[in-house]
Design goal:
Rossmann fold; 2 domains; 3-stranded antiparallel β-sheet; two-stranded parallel sheet; binds glutamic acid; binds zinc ion
């Protein structure tokens, strides 16, 4: 098996990071698995290389040892998401050629919160399917004045999985309302896209993270399924999920 710790270097390390790193690390080592560290610095406005390096210094100081990741390398090097954008772009091109994604020209304020993982208190916006059925002619016309975001065309479906801490989960995705953004209009790749593509590329079989990300999991499983059918790849294996309670104050 393979576990991972995938922090976003938007600040110095905090106890919540250490908590999740420790849980994923202990679980991986107990199973004699491989441990991957990946820097989720895809949100280039909020992430800083220096903070990423400081985070790695602190993980080393705490005694974590990773088998793949920054400073140690590995088959997927680089392990900094900001340097893996060609890969994300290639996958989006494949999805576009199968008409599984579509351009959305809607106002930026609606798209505001998608590039980073939505943590507690952040609103997750639903869409209204507005751009899903635009005619090619209109798309060409709009393209002249605006760079669109790219949305996944979701087919309504139900997703069930069992979470290590949260138990049985049932999620319903509704086509159009849940068509979510994979790349923003400003070119930034969405957290949901990068996290799934990297977990696939790095062969991650166990995802342990904070329970504030539980609600993104349905979207991510949907993307796994889409990639499994569109690339007809049996190698794309869904990981097991564990969403651990966050450390909070009194
Ligand atoms: N990079 C994300 C965060 O720091 C975590 C991603 C994940 O573990 O799936 O919130
Ligand atoms: Zn739209």
């Amino acid at each position: 098996m393979k576990g991972r710790f995938a922090p976003s270097p938007t600040g110095y390390i905090h106890l919540g990071n250490v908590w999740i790193a420790l849980l994923s690390y202990v679980s991986t080592r107990q199973q004699k698995g491989q441990y991957v560290v990946r820097m989720e610095d895809i949100d280039i406005q909020r992430s800083k290389r220096d903070l990423g390096e400081a985070l790695l210094d602190d993980l080393e100081w705490l005694g974590f040892e990773w088998d793949e990741g920054p400073r140690v390398g590995g088959p997927e090097a680089t392990y900094w998401q900001s340097e893996r954008q060609t890969y994300y772009g290639d996958v989006l091109e494949n999805l576009a050629s199968e008409k599984l994604i579509y351009p959305c020209f809607c106002n930026r304020t609606r798209l505001h919160s998608i590039a980073s993982a939505p943590h507690v208190g952040e609103v997750v916006h639903r869409y209204d399917g507005h751009c899903r059925h635009l005619e090619d002619k209109l798309i060409k016309e709009f393209m002249m004045s605006k760079e669109p975001s790219l949305r996944l065309a979701v087919n309504s479906c139900d997703i069930d999985f069992v979470d290590r801490w949260q138990g049985f989960q049932h999620i319903h995705l509704e086509g159009e309302l849940d068509d979510y953004v994979l790349r923003r209009g400003d070119g930034m790749y969405a957290y949901n896209l990068a996290v799934v593509l990297d977990d696939i590329a790095m062969g991650i079989t166990e995802v342990i993270r904070g329970d504030d990300l539980l609600e993104t999991t349905g979207q991510q499983i949907y993307l796994y399924r889409t990639l499994q059918t569109s690339f007809k790849s049996k190698n794309i294996q869904l990981p097991s999920y564990g969403h651990a309670p966050l450390l909070i104050d009194s």
